[in-house]
Design a protein that fits this description.
This protein is mainly β. The chain has 3 helices and 36 strands. Pfam families: Ig_3.
Length: 594
């Protein structure tokens, strides 16, 4: 018998039994250890009497299916199914690789393997997957794609230039304009463009451009968008107005004969630009409408109610759009009025007076004034005369007494058919004395002084002659002895008498011995300029030794007589101020020759 381990020996049956015995000993040891560690029942292993056989189930990959992969928005229902060979697995859904968020339009089966979209919308379009989870494994299906057709939605036509004015877009003449639309549609919509009522489209693209816009391109543009998948059509429209380069308008008045308070007038802003706005200007400022100035609804007419003389303007109208503007030439209205504010003035009196006093033989100019448009026509009439004088001035070269009276001036306006008149009283007075009160007083004082000196000199001569006569009588014996029968008292003795009647010398009494009272003294208005001096004459005072001296009685010289015809002039008659004429350039006048 060979011993174990020796080469070339083959173990017998008993050797195999020993080998299995050692194997079972190891198993029993392991079993005892497992008995001591008691894991949960689900984790306990079942030991068989035979060799160990441990197996684990693999999770199969799910498959996804869809009822229809193309749907029309709001018209279809789509069902997605997730199939798996494994039981007791959990199904998860993904859309576009993101966990699906369920909402009221979705329905999920109890086992989670069927997903139904009740009403399809465009946001439901995309890729879908389902994943199965079980036995600590996750398996994902292949993706499936859902296509949702929709549109076209309502859209608007857009222009890259222009200004919207309500439902109309205004573009400038000569500008370049690009038309475009943005349509929401899947598949993309097909576009057709039409102008006004044409039946054939002029463009089938989403955008198009017009170079150099003109009035021929004005109108309503329509764009028709269609979807062959949804069989839907949408139409967009836009009215385009081409704004011409504005030209200057004009303000027109239908009537030229305008009369104050008698008529109204309508001013019209004439322009060929229909789409342009209109503004009005009065005296360069924006016109403010009122009950007196009324604008029409389109601002193209201005009505002036109850014309006044200050409504002459000037008036302007301006046409404008957002690209340009143009203003008319100013229009000034001619409004007839008057005559009114009648007045008669003269150089002989300042301001407007009702009575004019002028000196005899002086000149007189009467001026008639009136406010009137056009200028009034004047004619003069004189009291107690049938002569009519034409012109605004009436000139009298040299006044006579016959020129006294009432002068009437009438102003008339042929357009307003109105007339007014005014009158003035002309009084002719005698020339005033050239001697003023001071001159007369000076003459009186001078005359009194001369008289006093003359009287003193006369007394002196008288006394000297008396002494000489007495001395001669004493030396003449004949005269001393003779007793005259009748001897007159010496005249020299009477010189001692201070009164004028007692003078023995029969000299003439001085005429300036007493200051005469001035007769007809002219009253002078204080503060007025003195009248120009006139020539006057003054008599020389008597000499102390008159030429024709005699001792006989003489009549005194006559006193200087002042003009008794000089009247007391009224106040304000001597002023020479002349009121400035309203129309000094007029030379229309009439002259009355004396």
């Amino acid at each position: 018998m060979c011993k174990p381990g020796h080469a070339g020996q083959v173990p017998g049956p008993m050797g195999l039994a020993d080998l299995w015995g050692h194997h079972w000993a190891g198993i029993l040891l392991a079993a005892s250890l497992l008995t001591m560690w008691s894991p949960p029942a689900a984790a306990q292993l079942t030991l068989a009497a035979g060799p160990l056989n441990i197996t684990q189930e693999l999770l199969a990959r799910p498959t996804i299916s869809i009822s229809q992969d193309t749907a029309i928005e709001q018209r279809g229902q789509v069902t997605l199914s997730c199939d798996t060979k494994n039981a007791n697995v959990t199904i998860h859904w993904f859309a576009n690789d993101i966990p699906l968020v369920f909402h009221e339009r979705m329905l999920l089966s109890t086992d989670g393997k069927k997903l139904t979209i009740l009403t399809v919308r465009r946001e439901d379009s995309g890729t879908y997957k389902c994943k199965a989870e079980g036995f600590h494994q996750v398996q994902s299906s292949d993706p499936t794609f859902l296509t949702v057709n929709y549109g076209p939605d309502p859209f608007e036509i857009k222009l890259d230039s222009g200004v919207s004015s309500g439902e109309v877009v205004e573009v400038l003449e000569g500008s370049t304009v690009t038309f475009s639309v943005e349509t929401q549609s899947y598949p993309p919509a097909v576009h057709s463009w039409f102008l006004n009522n044409t039946s054939a489209p002029f463009s089938t693209t989403r955008t198009f451009t017009i170079q150099a816009m003109s009035t021929e391109h004005e109108g309503v543009y329509r764009c028709l968008a269609s979807n062959t998948a949804t069989h839907l059509l949408r139409l967009g429209a836009l009215e385009v107005r081409v704004l011409e380069m504005l030209t200057k308008p004009s303000v027109v008045s239908p009537s030229l004969n305008l009369v104050e308070n008698a008529s109204s007038v309508t001013l019209t802003c004439q322009t060929s630009h229909k789409g342009a706005g209109v503004l009005w200007f009065l005296r360069g400022q924006a016109l403010l409408p009122s009950q007196h100035l009324v604008l029409s609804a389109d601002n193209r007419s201005l009505v002036i109610h109850g014309l006044q003389r200050d409504d002459t303007g000037p008036y302007e109208c301006e046409v404008w759009n957002w690209g340009s503007q143009a203003r008319s030439e100013p229009l000034t209205l001619t409004i007839s009025y008057g005559p009114d504010q009648m007045a008669i003035t003269s150089r002989a009196a300042s301001g407007v007076v009702s009575t004019i006093k002028a000196e005899l033989n002086s000149s007189l100019t009467l001026q008639c004034q009136a406010e009137s448009q056009p200028g009034a026509k004047f004619h003069w009439t004189i009291e107690h005369s049938t002569t009519v004088y034409m012109g605004e001035q009436l000139i009298i070269g040299a006044l006579t007494w016959e020129h006294q009276g009432i002068y009437n001036c009438t102003a008339s306006n042929p357009l307003t058919q109105l007339a007014r008149s005014a009158s003035v009283l002309v009084r002719v007075v005698a020339p005033r004395s050239s001697l003023s009160a001071r001159v007369i007083a000076g003459i009186a004082v001078g005359a009194l002084t001369v008289a006093v000196l003359s009287a003193g000199l006369g007394c002196f001569v008288c006394k000297r002659n008396a002494r000489r006569f007495s001395r001669k009588k004493a030396e003449d014996p004949i005269q001393e002895g003779a007793t005259p029968t009748s001897v007159e008292a010496p005249r020299a003795e009477s010189c001692s008498t201070p009164g004028w009647p007692s003078l023995s010398l029969d000299w003439p009494r001085p005429m300036y011995a007493t200051s005469p009272e001035p007769q007809g003294q002219v009253g002078v208005k204080k503060g007025l300029p003195p009248d120009p001096p006139e020539q006057f004459y003054e008599k020389d005072p008597p000499s102390t030794t008159p030429r024709n001296y005699s001792h006989g009685p003489r009549k005194p010289l006559p006193k200087v007589a002042l003009d008794p015809l000089v009247p007391t002039l009224p106040k304000g008659n001597i002023e020479s101020n002349y009121e400035v004429l309203v129309n000094p350039e007029h030379n229309l006048y009439c002259q009355i020759n004396p």
